[in-house]
Amino acid sequence: MTRFVFRQAARALLALGLLSATTSAFADIRDYEFKLVKEQIRKGQAVVDVRLIHKPDERPVPDAVIFALRLDMAPDDMEQMTSAIEPVRSPEPGVYRFKVDLTDEGRWRISLAAKVQGEAETLQSRLVLKATP
């Protein structure tokens, strides 16, 4: 009887160990981050590159599906001032390129929402870039 209890306890501990090892292998949406490649860009028609990385290992993340975009001047207290932003072909995996129209000098906010392959949650990010003369 004691052997039976010992074996059952050992199996339970092994199963618990395997379960915790497999659940920690999955990433959390907070492990991903969008970063601007350049934080200053000339006013007017421009191209903005945004890199999506997996923070624990700094590796680029390709094939994310970006489904919400917004460009506004909220950092300069002008959230109602929006401008055009349009995705264009990416120069490399993990870099997402956008054509923008920065109509005024100042700070512009890019708001993004994306689905990362293999993650159930949505990645949301707000990046600030500066339009210079």
Describe, in plain words, how this protein is organized in 3D.
The protein has 133 residues and is of the alpha+beta class. It has a single domain (27-132), classed as Immunoglobulin-like. Helix content is 18%, strand content 51%. It has 1 helix and 10 strands; from the N terminus they run αββββββββββ. Strands 1, 3, 4, 7 and 8 form a 5-stranded antiparallel beta sheet that branches. Strands 2-10-9-5-6 form a 5-stranded mixed beta sheet, with no helix packed on it. A hairpin with a 6-residue loop joins β7 and β8. It is elongated, with a radius of gyration of 22 Å. The termini are far apart.
Write out key terms for the chains shown.
133 residues; alpha+beta; Immunoglobulin-like; 5-stranded antiparallel beta sheet; 5-stranded mixed beta sheet; 18% helix; 51% strand
| Biggest sheet descriptor | 5 strands, antiparallel
Gyration radius over CA? 22 Å
Helix content: 10-25%
Q: How many strand segments?
A: 10
Number of domains: 1
Helix-and-strand structural type: alpha+beta
Distance between the termini: 82 Å
